[in-house]
């Protein structure tokens, strides 16, 4: 469209908010438009802590990848990886680690391709989490990930964009079954635990203004994603409370529960 910046891939509807760009806005990024900013502002109106929650989520991702790296994980499958920002997996993990990013968003894909162009160890797959077989069988995944060796599977702030009717638990089980023993699942998921009014107001904002569902699930539903994994300490906790580097306020609503599980 005339007047749009050169980085916008063809066919992107910048008049309609989308998940990846709203998150980019909340993180203070520059790959978003008025429609995304409007939704970001609606979200901060229902949950004033929204930007801090976004940052806390990124920081959790960084700490979890460091934890996996220390446990010897050298290959990562990061699904719903988003528009690249600070602390991407290939920047946090061992420099020789292999990383496959996966997303459906054209801006996330184009920007990831640009920053990874010279990187032989990392690439992005354009695929939908709802089609895990396509992700597992994709030639980029097969080139970079050796499924006979332990893998770090990241599902960070993405499963809450999948409806119950599409059975996200089956999707995670399909991915889990492809992983070697000693692999890890890193999970962050929106919850209504602690502040159901704000959580359900956020769901409403997404259903009205973003072309994707948002499901803020209760703890028990999120815990089920760890079926077949042994959850590591401290278990499933509010985002900043997972092995924190600095103290966080445990009484605040942090919007999501996070955890790391190991496949025995
Ligand atoms: C909130 S962002 C999270 C980005 C990153 N994982 C993080 O936590 O910083 C969610 C990302 O998931 C992607 N996404 C949403 N639904 C998806 C699906 N069905 N398949 C693949 N990616 C999806 C969006 O495009 C977006 O980039």
Give a description of the structure.
The chain is α/β, with parallel strands linked by helices and 264 residues long. The chain is built from 10 helices and 8 strands. Strands 1, 2, 3, 4, 5, 6, 7 and 8 form an 8-stranded mixed beta sheet that branches. Helix 5 links the parallel strand 2 and strand 3. Helix 2 runs antiparallel to helix 9. The model has no long low-confidence stretch (mean pLDDT 94). Bound molecules: S-adenosylmethionine (SAM). The site of S-adenosylmethionine has 22 residues, from helix 1, helix 3 and strand 2. S-adenosylmethionine binds next to helix 1, helix 3 and strand 2.
In whole angstroms, the N-to-C terminal distance is 51 Å
Point out poorly predicted stretches: none
Question: How many runs of DSSP E, i.e. beta strands?
Answer: 8
Biggest sheet, in brief? Answer: 8 strands, mixed
Structural class by SSE content: alpha/beta
What is the mean pLDDT? 94
How would the global form be characterised?
Answer: globular
């Amino acid at each position: 469209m005339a007047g749009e910046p050169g980085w916008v891939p063809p066919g992107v509807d910048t008049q309609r908010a989308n998940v990846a760009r709203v998150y980019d806005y909340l993180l203070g990024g520059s790959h978003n438009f008025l429609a995304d900013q409007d939704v970001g502002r609606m979200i901060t109106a229902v949950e004033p802590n929204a930007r801090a929650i976004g940052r806390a989520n990124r920081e959790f991702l960084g700490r979890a990848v460091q934890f996996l790296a220390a446990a010897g994980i050298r290959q990562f499958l990061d699904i719903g990886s988003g528009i690249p920002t600070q602390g991407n997996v290939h920047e946090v993990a061992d420099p020789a680690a292999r990383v496959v990013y996966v997303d459906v968003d054209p801006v996330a894909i184009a920007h990831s391709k640009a920053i990874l162009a010279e990187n032989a160890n990392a690439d992005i797959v354009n695929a939908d989490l709802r089609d895990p077989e396509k992700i597992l069988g994709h030639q980029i995944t097969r080139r970079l990930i050796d499924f006979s060796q332990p893998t770090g599977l990241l599902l960070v702030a993405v499963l809450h964009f999948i409806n119950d009717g599409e059975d996200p638990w089956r999707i995670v089980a399909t991915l889990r079954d492809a992983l070697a023993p000693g692999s890890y699942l890193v999970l962050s998921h929106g919850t209504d635990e602690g502040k159901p009014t704000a959580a359900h107001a956020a769901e409403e904002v997404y259903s009205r203004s973003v072309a994707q569902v948002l499901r803020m699930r209760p703890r028990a539903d999120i815990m089920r994603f760890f079926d077949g994994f042994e959850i590591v300490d401290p278990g499933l906790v509010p985002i900043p409370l997972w092995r924190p580097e600095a103290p966080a306020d445990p009484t605040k609503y942090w919007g999501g529960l996070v955890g790391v599980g190991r496949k025995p």
